Queue: 4 jobs
Job 1
Amino acid sequence: DHKSLKYIFTQRELNIRQRRWLELLKDYNTNIQYHPRKANVVADALSRKSGMIAGIKVEEEIIRDLERLDIKLYVRGQHGYWASLRVEPDLIFRIKE
């Protein structure tokens, strides 16, 4: 919850996190609006989704490399590939080898 960002430009004293946000925002013309969690249901649900699902375009060679690592790849689409990929600890270990 980042409701405190709504008041970042009017506060006299800022903590370290707020200072970092202010440093990031100072170069932009911003209008910060707070949306309560219940008013932003879709974004909240997406931010809490477990695993990693991404749309990626990959080359044939990359697909073969992934198959050699025993990664299950579900391919759809005509102009690219849509893949569902979940990285498990044992996969990370095999990649490091």
Job 2
Amino acid sequence: MLMKIKCFNLILFVALFGVVINDLSTEWNEFKRKYNKQYANINEENERQQIFIENINEMYSYQQNHPYATFTLGINHLFDRRRQELTSITPKNPLKSRVPSSFKSSIERKDLPKSLDWRDKKVITEVYHGELGVIVTAIVSTELVESLHAIETGELIDGSIPQVFDCCPQPIDAFDCIQNMSGVCRKIDYPEKLGRCEPNICKPFATFDIIKRMNETDENQMLEWIQDSTLWAEINADGKGFSSYKGGIYDEPSCTEGFLDNIVQIVGYGSENGKIIVLLNRTIFLCISN
């Protein structure tokens, strides 16, 4: 009797798996249409479809095993990419070897607003949906210059990510590099990557004078700095569900405190149950302190 039950379960699993694959074919076609996905050849498309299926199954598995998670998941434009392709730093070129597991509070907190979201002030450009990987440093550094210019002038202008990508490759510090170029050009003046740095083909529209760097993670200092502009942050993006995040508060124990492999723009903060909540430009909320 036991062997018959096992056999029945196996057949049922195979049948259900076949249904899932068929459903994913529909989702795959919808994914390609929605995000205008085009591939060089059939082999690349087959590879991307397989990755898409793996990511979908991983998302469903997480949802099933974490019914009370504080955040929701969904399909996005990154679902045809493996997690390793989405990180901005390779193991050979880490941002830092290790960071503290929680924020310190070395300075007295001043009378600051309980929450802030620079997106509400119309100084944040739309989330970038183009090429990812090592270009993330160019994306976020350009975003920060765009936002700083908008905060100071009231004019939100798209900067040239391709220019920063061409002229400030890793491991060059992006902000030192932008400063040396006298700023960032407009996107319309430097619209595509050239494969070489051509800083003189356009005139920068925005720059900055001072670069502040936080040597140790400090919650109160971060809250003070963000009153003046958005911030650059280096994070570990390997936590479960991070790449398929859709909404809610991302507070996932699997996000380790070791290797930092991604960069984000912090656009604001709030609080939830006594914890500081950090708002990122990709609408992800991170719990960072008790």
Job 3
Amino acid sequence: MSHYGNILSTLNYSLNRTATGDVPDLKLFPLTGLYRYFADAGRFIECASGLNLPVVTMGDNAKLENAYLQLIEPACCHTHGLLKQG
């Protein structure tokens, strides 16, 4: 129960600013493009923008890399991803 907007509780509800913030839980969004593997690195060329993006070596990257190595040519991909600067 509250009285005049105050929380009546023995728990600590105070908020404190930290030097670095937590990374927000961002939702993945659909991407379509061409995947290629060259010089031990995966690249993804996004169709709508033409951006040539590096692919991180985590998650399902190994599956995508193996599929590409069977084709040995750029593969059209429909995926969900997150673009991060870094």
Job 4
Amino acid sequence: MECVGFLALTSVIPETRDAVGRVAGLIARLLNQENEQGENALLLFVQVLADNTPPGIACRRDLVALAEALARKVGQEETKESRPIAPSSPRPTAPTLEEALQFLNEGDDEKAFDLVRKLKEGGSLRFLDLDQLIATALHHREEEQRTRARDAAYAEIRVLAQSRFTLPQARRAWAEFQAEHPGHDPEELGSLIPQPEAAPKPRVSAEQQTLLDTMLDPTVPPPERAKAGQRLAVLGDQRPGVGLRADGVPDIAWVEVPGGKCRIGGDKDAYQSLPAQEVDIPTFWMAKYPVTNWQYQAFVADRGYEEETWWTEAKANGMWRAGQVKVWTWAWDKVQQKVM
């Protein structure tokens, strides 16, 4: 029967090498044919396709819309010919949860949420929480945006690493990227970015080593350890993270603090109390040691007090003005006024 049906169908296809023309001719023939009940052949064909397409498939909506349009067209033609309208009405298709989720998968959140809302109002859904669905969908959209941004940054670094003119920028960008996305290196890009040669370790004199050993020995009396530390400060403390680099910039030893979730707030007596909540803290870096006097002196010598860039928050809070820090300088001025 299937072969007979196929032969019957091919017999009405126009003879032409143009595939589009043959399909158009077949559609025209079906549109002009009816069965014994007076039902349009093309309309029946589209309705069968729509009825046998699962609700979750996107083209089902298109087939239903096409059937409705054909029904209107066939009805108009029969009206013109003064014939009774006898097209079979397309079966009404109620919106389903599968269609709503299909919209969601396709990225059309507005249609998906509107359809789910109608289903909820009609009492068709018992278990689905619309608010939770919206929150989950928005979370996934944010995750997708972060993933796209991460992949775009990764691709940019890969291009920067291919030229010797942008290789230094690639190194800096790669260090920042690793801090933001630890462990993400699908193409092993880290092994392709040559690192600059490590600076030679500073030479430590015998006296410096002796002073260092004395300062770090807990069995030595504190006065002797303090004296050793003062002498070492004069000669230069070569330990990483406590002194200056060769260019005079403070040598800071950075430590990575992995990001994660943290519960904060809920203490009404705390400073700037916040309600109890769980927050996402991104990965950040902090100094392994407190800033030393030697390092801070470099900041002072470089006129850091006068550079507004380093005091934006202090200025906004009224704690810095024209190179003067309120806590120290203004308090000292008040003391002098009282003495005088």
